[in-house]
Design a protein that fits this description.
Length: 607
């Protein structure tokens, strides 16, 4: 059962209290095995002009830097000034020019000085997330081969078969906690981008550092390059990946198997997040590895929890008790890894709430793909979508393959949720039809990324579907001015609100697996986070400014779920017994205490 009491408990926190949250600072000394110029060229240790004179002496840096020592705060201000002047100078230029220029300046800092980079990212997450994450990261992936200056992360290709166990030891970090892995086959809604998809693990891991406080020396973005079926890339002379069609079947799986074994051998406790795999491999690898390794699929499982939290929020926004969730008619558009993940978790929740009545739960939900409404009459029905296909007798007179417009007109759904990757399919007619929804506050979730692939934009949603809707999108949009001082609030329904907490909580619990119970606890925590006052205004998710706070809470919920399932073996000095005896507040404090925060720490040289 969903623990409804938690929703009431959430009301005691105000947004200002959340903003006051601050992470613990003061890390100890940091051991380096290099000296002199090698340190200046290592972004993990480099402090630029910030090295104190004594440290310059100790590390053989004296004379390699201009004499004046600049404080961290001055360095920070200098960077932000140059960022703001770039913003000013590029005003009015096309989106792609401006955002790529912003990405370049951030990327240069990332390559040079990670402490300063991550501090700037954490302090300006609202401005910078759209650059290092969706939508700009999509543009960066599309242009990756041209933008490439330095490698980041690791690249395992089909040509490395048999070598991965030794290759994994080429990574310079001693310990890795968090890996984000892609094969580049479905990058956001942009399709197969081959090796260029490495931008996604990099962006996701930046969010891990910023939101979850994972130490950047312990993260590893990985590209599994098994070829690409993108003809344009195969013909591009600058393309940096393998110029061959994608491996399929056993050949493909043997590459992923070898990588997973290699990772597990070197870092048995590392957590692997699978990201942006095309649907067939997303499901197959999840099934194959989730009981053997500590892994999850973000698109299937992370997205599901975020969507479910939003759907529960829409019930509260209607002024209804949560138990009314069982009466919501939900239309999901897109039957891929994300859409099916969402539907699966939603049906589980509906079913629990209606006394384990899965049939009643399924009756509330409708699924469409590129060929329209999916029913049991569908020829060549995808086995993954089959459990959600409508029995034609329960389809309210709708036919197999009915169009989106027909479905919306007939059903008058409470929720219209897009995960199709197709920009603009919630067109004017569809949105107007949502005015007839049976809900006083219909929900429109346009969750596909990046911005161009969103099913509709925020302004159109409020304009055509009316001012009463609650709106969420996968990529950020500005709030909409509805006139007369009213604001149409735009929520960002993105898995970034869960995956950092899922990874962090799993790490700190010491669990070897990520179970449905841990994922459900993460989703419940997010769902209960918003106050009734916020929800009434149509605000379903926290502001990205408080992502570190929500991540600590989600992380703690995941730890506690692992403890409940007797999977928590502890982390570092904290053993399973201590975890068992922690109260909820103590667990949050434990998680918060373990979040890394960027400050310069004294460097100590060791041979
Ligand atoms: N907001 C978030 O947190 C997340 C958003 N996404 C976004 O969701 C989108 C889909 O991702 P996946 O499910 O992994 O992709 P996928 O390729 O596995 O599935 C896409 C689905 O959309 C369907 N589709 C295509 N054209 C359609 C149309 N005209 N009408 C209805 N359905 C149509 C396809 O038949 C397929 O079932 C991507 O744009 C991705 O960026 C994915 C994960 C998280
Ligand atoms: C957000 C995300 O994971 C996606 O669009 O694929
Ligand atoms: Mg993804």
């Amino acid at each position: 059962m969903w623990r409804v009491a938690r929703f009431a408990a959430s009301n005691v926190r105000s947004s200002s209290q959340r903003r006051l949250f601050s992470a613990p600072v003061i890390p100890g000394a940091c051991i380096v095995h290099k000296r002199g110029a090698d340190i200046l060229h290592d972004p993990w240790f480099n402090k630029d002009t910030g090295f104190p004179l004594t440290e310059r002496d100790r590390l053989g840096l004296r004379g390699l830097l201009p004499p004046r020592v600049i404080s961290f705060e001055q360095q920070y201000d200098r960077f932000m000034e140059s960022y703001r002047s770039l913003e000013k100078n590029t005003q009015g230029q096309p989106y792609s020019v401006v955002s790529l220029a912003k990405w370049r300046i951030l990327n240069r800092l990332h390559d040079r000085n990670e402490i300063l980079y991550y501090r700037a990212l954490i302090d300006n997450i609202k401005d910078f997330a759209p650059i290092i994450y969706t939508p700009t990261v999509g543009l960066v992936c599309q242009n990756y081969s041209g933008l490439f200056r330095r490698p980041r992360g690791m690249y395992f290709s089909a040509k490395d078969k048999g070598e991965m166990m030794s290759m994994i030891y080429n990574w310079p970090g001693q310990q890795v906690d968090m890996i984000v892995l892609t094969d580049g086959s479905r990058i956001l809604g942009l399709g197969d981008l081959g090796v260029q998809g490495i931008g996604i693990p990099i962006g996701k891991l930046d969010m891990y550092v910023a939101a979850a406080g994972i130490n950047p020396q312990r993260i590893l973005p990985v590209m599994l390059d098994v070829g690409t079926n993108n003809q344009k890339l195969l013909e591009d002379p600058l393309y940096l990946g393998l110029r061959q069609p994608r491996l399929e079947g056993e050949e493909y799986l043997s590459i992923v198997d070898e990588f997973m074994e290699a990772v597990h051998t070197r870092w048995p406790k590392a957590i692997v997040q699978f990201e942006d795999f095309q649907m067939k491999w997303a499901f197959e690898t999840l099934l194959r590895y989730r009981k053997r390794f500590c892994m999850f699929n973000d698109d299937v499982q992370g997205t599901a929890g975020v969507a479910l939290a939003g759907l529960l929020g829409t019930v509260r926004a209607q002024g209804r008790p949560l138990s009314d969730f069982v009466n919501q008619k939900i239309v999901v558009v897109g039957a891929g890894s994300a859409g099916l993940g969402v539907l699966n978790m939603t049906i589980q929740a509906l079913s629990r709430m209606s006394g384990n009545n899965e049939i009643a739960a399924k009756n509330q939900c409708y699924l469409l793909d590129k060929d329209g409404l999916i029913t049991k009459e569908r020829k060549n029905l995808d086995p993954a979508a089959a459990p959600f296909a409508k029995d034609i007798k329960d389809a309210e007179g709708l036919k197999e393959g009915a169009s989106l417009l027909e479905v919306v007109k007939k059903l008058k759904p409470h929720v219209l949720l897009g995960l199709s990757g197709v920009g603009g399919i919630f067109n004017e007619q569809v949105l107007r039809a949502m005015r007839e929804s049976d809900s006083p506050k219909p929900a429109i979730f346009s969750m596909s990324n990046p911005t161009m692939n969103a099913e509709c934009n925020a302004a159109d949603a409020f304009k055509h579907a009316g001012p009463n809707i609650v709106f969420a999108s996968g990529s950020p949009f500005e709030n909409v001015d509805l006139g007369n001082g009213k604001v149409g609030h735009v929520n960002q329904a993105n898995n970034m609100y869960l995956f950092p907490g899922i990874g962090l909580g799993t790490l700190l619990s010491g669990s070897h697996f990520i179970t449905d119970g841990m994922l459900q606890a993460a989703a419940e925590c997010l769902a209960s986070y918003m106050t009734d006052e916020e929800i009434q205004k149509g605000i379903l998710y926290p502001s990205i400014d408080s992502i570190r706070h929500i991540t600590a809470e989600v992380g703690a919920a995941v730890v506690r779920a692992a403890v409940e399932e007797d999977l928590a073996e502890g982390h570092g000095e904290v053993g399973s017994r201590e975890l068992k005896h922690m109260s909820k507040e103590e667990t949050v404090a434990y998680v918060t205490h373990n979040m890394w925060f960027p400050v310069y720490s004294p460097l100590v040289h060791e041979k």
